[in-house]
Design a protein that fits this description.
By secondary structure, the protein is mainly beta. The chain has a single domain, classed as Jelly Rolls, CATH 2.60.120.10. Helix content is 4%, strand content 42%. It is built from one helix and seven strands; from the N terminus they run αβββββββ. It binds nickel (II) ion (NI). The site of nickel (II) ion has 5 residues, from loops. The site of nickel (II) ion (NI) has 5 residues, from loops.
């Protein structure tokens, strides 16, 4: 069961989280929004296009699932391309640079509080814990 501890979801209602519906509410690229939590982990959606920055997360793995489009994850020693329905887990501490040639819709799963740009802080850094 997915809990929504910090989200004001109506209790007693059983509603699916529809990722396409949630994504339609996002108008800004590279801006992650939380759609659900499970224990200390969050499911976050984003629309991405172009290049993100090289970064790593020293404390945690990070899972990417592509909902629509195509996401490329570059690593210092290789790369993986994810299409709709495909996912990949970036191990903790591994430098990665996401990019997308065209607008791509993704779901990211990681612990609450992870900074999207890792140890780097720049124009791509986004505040945490914003729900949609
Ligand atoms: Ni990352």
């Amino acid at each position: 069961m997915i809990t929504t501890a910090t989200h004001p979801a109506p209790s007693g209602s059983y509603r699916a989280v529809n990722l396409a519906d949630k994504l339609s509410l996002l108008h800004e690229q590279w801006s992650q929004r939380v759609v659900a939590e499970i224990n200390d982990y969050q499911f976050k959606i984003a629309k991405v296009e172009g290049d993100f920055v090289w970064h790593a997360h020293a404390e945690t793995d990070e899972a990417f699932l592509v909902v629509a489009g195509e996401l490329r994850l570059e690593f210092r020693d290789g790369a993986v391309t994810l299409r709709a329905g495909e996912m990949f887990v970036v191990p903790r501490g591994v430098e990665h640079k996401p990019s997308a040639a065209q607008e791509t819709h993704i779901l990211v799963v990681e612990p609450r509080g992870v900074v999207n740009t890792g140890a780097e802080h720049n124009e791509r850094t986004q505040p945490n814990d914003r729900w949609v």
